[in-house]
Design goal:
Chain lengths: ~350, ~350
């Protein structure tokens, strides 16, 4: 549906204040922003390096320059949010400012924990101050990475445990955030939720690969079997339960009764994947992201979920927790359950138009 | 759907829509998936997950027992899997999604069978021949199936076969390595893209923008690689004793012009134009870095290190401004000129 057709439809329903459609605010697609952001980031890094290596390293000067750069970026984002060119310039200024502050932190602050806390504060400052989706996405991603490093700092000895808690927690937060995003009817708040939501998705994707690399470490395997295989499983249960919770929430949102045949079929499928997730790390999380991407009509999120799912299956062959025979049994059982669910789904007739209207009126 | 939701929220913020009636507007605009969309999604997702889980389970099972199996058992399994998938294609038909999934699975099983043949009967054939034969054998299936994913897979196989064929016999084949023959890959993938665009206009099943964009991304990567090498070998310097990079730059220029014209005025796909912009940005940065490394002694250290950063930011802003201008023009075109199909209307501004 073109924007004009949409406007005419809304006007016919008496929802618009005027007959003529207002000017469409053209937005840059995500790939265009990503490419330009990479170019600007590269330039900003070089500028920061020039200041860092070839100017007297006075922290007060660096802080002043970074403050000016960040203030300029903040002002540009707030005063000209729709100006694409000024927006890109503001990105460059913000990156330079943040880079200089990071340099001061590493130069002046000695304690590792304090450095991490200050980095977290910087990320939160950029997130709150910059009225721009890409800035918020980058700031949220940086904040999550720093939180992961802080968790490692506090619980470093039991490193696999803190990772599992973090991933389970992020998966739960992911669903919460996107539920808020789908309910939010104000544009600016919606952009905030989307920024955090995408950051969580990208963090989980990166975390999955990191976790896989770690699992190849023989010391990690020894600790896992020794310490708490049960705790590990309990934490993975959290991801599975998050998936089931999402399924229930979506069914209610679509007006499907939880006791209906359709709901039972879909919950069985979700339960099958949740159980697989106990032995196949991140399977439930990948499906969670995929389904959320579809529900929120976010194709990029859908793509991240699909990529993650394929990655999970590809890496599972090399996962050393269990042998290939057990893996094959889990997969065959899950595949069988999903196929049965699909066959059962095909037997349910589509909802008729009258039932749909009755559901909407209720 | 996503664009409608964002657009409605923007209109409400501008005061063009009553915020209290925004839920009603979102329903009218189909901003979220409808019941039929959910049903189709659930159907496809369950099928895809089931196929992935079952085929992975089978592969893992055979991998676990592989050492204990004799030659005939191994062949029986591989050929049995192929037979089952082909039976699925025949029984379900290519009009159905499950039939298409079976066809893709059959293409994978054929590769496994060929690998088993090569492993069991050591004929001295090179690895590239396995991929080349695989390509040739699944070509009729790809033509019959008209499945974008299968065609992408076929093209990937062709690229791998070429890479193995062209690589040094003693060295591990590497994409974008020092002896990478980027021209061959560029021409092959560009021809594939051109043929696919043409076929996409005739067969709607092949008109999948995501697949075409992936192929275009590969084409752009190859030609950009060549052009960046070309920048560093276009003229001699105290550090580099080559001056044969001009051809690569000429190829790049011709590609950028042709690609830009076709996707701006004929096919009208903004994503493709963004690829040209990314390539230009990379090329400009490479040229800048080469010039600065050869003339850095003319500046003080601070200026010599600051200039690349500032200039790259300036180039990125310039490229961004150019892209934005094109986007606005294409938006105006989209409003004013009639479209051949709903596909074109959607992809212009995606």
């Amino acid at each position: 549906m073109k924007p004009q057709e949409l406007w005419n439809k809304l006007h016919a329903a008496g929802l618009t204040r005027q007959e003529a459609m207002p000017a469409i605010v053209l937005r840059a697609p995500w790939y265009m922003e990503a490419i330009l952001f990479l170019g600007l980031w590269t330039g900003a890094v070089l500028v920061v390096c020039a200041f860092v290596f070839f100017l007297p390293k006075e922290s007060s000067v660096m802080l002043f320059l970074s403050g000016v750069a960040l203030a300029l970026a903040c002002w540009l984002f707030r005063s000209c949010p729709e100006n694409f060119f000024l927006g890109q310039f503001a990105h460059a200024a913000s990156l330079c400012g943040a880079g200089l502050i990071l340099f001061v932190i590493f130069q002046e602050v000695t304690g590792h924990e304090t450095q991490l806390r200050l980095q977290l504060a910087l990320a939160l400052l950029v997130f709150c101050a910059m009225n721009n989706f890409v800035q918020r996405l980058v700031a949220a991603s940086a904040a999550l990475s720093v939180i992961a490093m802080l968790c490692r700092y506090y619980w470093g000895d039991a490193r696999f445990l803190w990772m599992e808690w973090l991933y389970a927690g992020c998966a739960f937060a992911f669903v919460l955030v996107w539920q808020r995003e789908m309910k939010t009817l104000r544009y600016r708040r919606n952009q905030i939720w989307r920024g955090v939501g995408y950051a969580l998705a990208l963090f989980l994707l990166a975390a999955m690969n990191f976790s896989f690399l770690l699992s190849q470490d023989s010391m990690w395997i020894a600790k896992a079997t020794q310490e708490s295989a049960r705790v590990l499983s309990a934490l993975r249960v959290l991801s599975g339960m998050t998936l089931l919770w999402l399924a229930v929430w979506l069914l209610r949102r679509e007006g499907v009764a939880c006791s209906s045949r359709l709901a039972l079929i879909l919950m069985s499928a979700a339960l099958g994947v949740a159980l697989l997730g106990m032995e196949m790390p991140f399977a439930a999380v990948a499906l969670l992201i995929l389904v959320t991407g579809f529900a929120a009509s976010a194709p990029v999120l859908l793509g991240i979920g699909a990529l993650m799912l394929l990655n999970v299956f590809a890496q599972y062959y090399y996962w050393l927790e269990v042998n290939l025979l057990r893996k094959s049994i889990y997969l065959l059982l899950t595949g069988g359950i999903l196929l049965l669910c699909r066959l059962a789904l095909l037997k349910i007739p589509p909802r008729r138009a009258e039932e749909k209207e009755e559901g909407e009126h209720e | 759907m996503n664009l409608h939701r964002i657009q409605l929220l923007l209109w409400a913020e501008q005061g063009q829509l009553d915020p209290a009636r925004l839920p009603e507007a979102l329903r009218l605009a189909d901003a979220f998936p409808a019941t039929d969309d959910w049903r189709r999604f659930a159907d496809r997702l369950l099928l895809a997950l089931a196929v992935l889980a079952l085929s992975s389970g089978v592969i893992f099972f055979f991998a676990y027992n592989w050492e204990r199996l004799g030659h005939f058992s191994r062949f029986a399994l591989a050929e049995g899997a192929l037979a089952v998938t082909l039976f699925g294609v025949w029984r379900l038909g290519l009009d159905r999604l499950s039939g298409q999934a079976s066809l893709f699975a059959a293409a994978l099983c054929l590769g496994a069978l060929l690998a088993l043949l090569g492993q069991t009967y050591q004929t001295g054939a090179d690895v590239w021949e396995l991929f080349a034969v695989w390509c040739v054998l699944i070509l009729p299936w790809a033509l019959l199936g008209r499945q974008a994913l299968l065609w992408l897979f076929w093209l990937a196989l062709l690229n791998v076969a070429l890479l193995l064929y062209l690589s040094n016999a003693d060295a591990i084949p590497r994409l974008f390595g020092p002896d990478f023959n980027w021209q061959t890959f560029f021409i092959v993938n560009l021809c594939a893209l051109a043929l696919w665009e043409g076929a996409g206009r005739r067969f709607a099943e092949l008109n999948r923008r995501w697949a075409l964009r992936l192929v275009a991304l590969a084409v752009t990567s190859y030609v950009t690689y060549g052009a960046v090498i070309g920048v560093w070998t276009a003229w001699e310097s105290p550090f580099i004793n080559r001056n044969d990079g001009g051809d690569a730059l000429l190829i790049w220029a011709l590609w950028a012009a042709g690609f830009g014209y076709f996707y701006r005025y004929r096919a009208r796909d903004f994503f493709m134009l963004t690829l040209i912009a990314a390539s230009s940005l990379l090329l400009a940065a490479s040229t800048l870095i080469r010039l600065l490394t050869e003339h850095w002694k003319q500046f003080d250290l601070f200026t010599a290190s600051l200039m690349p950063g500032v200039l790259i930011i300036g180039i990125a802003l310039g490229v961004g401004a150019g892209l934005w201008r094109i986007r606005k023009d294409m938006a105006v075109d989209a409003r004013e000129k009639p479209r051949e199909s709903a596909h074109e209307a959607a992809r212009t501004l995606e």
